[in-house]
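MODEL INPUT / OUTPUT PAIR
PAIR INDEX: 1
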Amino acid sequence: MKEGAEMESTVRSTMRACTVNLVAAFETERALEEALPGLRVLGEIHPARFLLLLADEKAPAGAAQTWSVAPPGARAPYMTVVRAREVRHLASAFNALSEPELPMVVYWTAELSGARFDRMLAAADRLILDSGTRPARELGRLLPLLNSGAPLGDLAWARIAPWQAVAADVLDLPNLREHRARVKSAEIHFAPSADGPGAEAALLGGWLASRLSGVRVTFAAETTGSATASATPGALTGLMLDAPPARFSFRAEKNLICADVTGDDDGPTSHWGTLHPAELGRLLAYELQLFAGRDEVYEFALRAAAKLV
């Protein structure tokens, strides 16, 4: 009895601290189990009401099944799993268990169509996808969602945040600012892939194209370098910016992004930034900097990226 009371007290305390409903939708139990460690990390960063929806054709007919997943540590949140065969039963449990006064953020891992997706999109204050799980040429499929006003987030966008930060820092160094307006071309490097550059490489190119007027963006498969050898096919591995007479080179080295600048009057310059592990929990935490609404910088980059690939 004491343990039950302590558990109930913990759940109530967690709920009082919650700032957002986080709904994660999965199509298989395996996908759910693989995501749990990352979701627990997210819960330690952002107190949230976690609802994990599992659409399972093998589930018993009728009302949804629900159960709680206990956290391994004191700071991690309890999570409620909802399993059902039919969309209407998932929706019913979802409506009953979510906190109506909190923003609704949906992490979507399935296809971008169907009754379940439409229900989640209608309910979401923010819908987080992962375009990095699909070839970059499919980025164009997201444009109708943008055009309809969908408040999209993207884990692929979160993955390139360190590259954006280092590039912005270098171009803003006092001795290098003069070259920012002279950038003529950008070459994005990626690990060799039959499908071409991945979504992250494409989004970085789109970001540059949308932020630097008149820049020409190209992509090149990179076959050398320690980062390339262990990279996933299509993964972002480097960036070259030409701003005559200067040249900016960015590359991944273990857990760093290293930048080298040549051709400047003051001589060569080196800079670096941390390349954090692309863990699910931290990527979601990055996207949860915005609970609701649209990320206009991402939207401009996505539209430009879709044209590039």
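PAIR INDEX: 2
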Amino acid sequence: MRLVRDNAMLAHLLLLAAAPLACLLSGPAHAAELALASAPGSNWVMDGAENSCRLIREFGEGDDRVNLLITQWSPGKSFSMVVAGRPLRRFDDGRPVEVQFGDAAGPLGPRPERPVKGTLGDNAAALIFHSVYLTPPPPDGANPAARPPEYGTAAPMLPPAARAAADRIELVQGRDRLRLEPTRLGDALAVLDDCSGQRLAEWGLDRAAHATMIQAPEPLNFEDLSRRIQRYYPLAARMRGEQGNLHMRMLVDEAGIATDCTITAASETSRITTNACEQFTAEGLFLPALDAAGKPMKSFYATSILFRMQAP
């Protein structure tokens, strides 16, 4: 088992169980480069479900058709992304994929990601990115005040400067390259961000205060909590060979106490369960969020729990 943790508001727990992977695909060895514009008649579709906000778009035609899904489970700087279609057969599982949303030399340039390869819909090959940022991680030790505006602030939102600069979704693995060229990507991301931001009021939180906050809630005993949760990969899920992503969100009050924890599965067919909410609300110790004046404020904390099978 290992822990994957981001420097921003979202952190991620990775749970592994020893078993063969049934849903992974391997692609042809030959190289290919493919650039796809939006499919004829295709427009951005915004799906504001109860527990998520999702953008959907189609690209290309015929055997080159690709489907894109971008999902946020709570407001923040990152999102999950699924890219699916026959062209994705060329990408191998277990190898890094370079991802970029703008010019290679700019702040939205390439960075390595490790997606899971699986299927979507009618067995279409898919790359599944559980958490992606528009900008690469800043260099270690970089002064936050000196970062370009594309990196944003402590506010849980997609940075406006990064949204405006986004003009592509490019995936590269070795000599294989897939470039999606959607129209009005920045506008679509702004709609996604607004949809997620509306959740704050639904949770009883002050959206305006979150736009200017200077610190998000931070768990002080994250390592201890993660070790407890990682000990448990549900036996029933292991026997079924089931993998999945669970998204956990809780409120954190001005005293740093976590309450109202909820967990949502990334897939409606997922049957994986976890006691993570009980662990975080009973044992979690948090630094509270701080408003623009530096005073504690009520906010939320979100994390993803990743269940992954691995070969024995």
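PAIR 2 NOTE: Helices lie at 160-165, 185-202, 207-211, 222-230, 235-240, 276-283.
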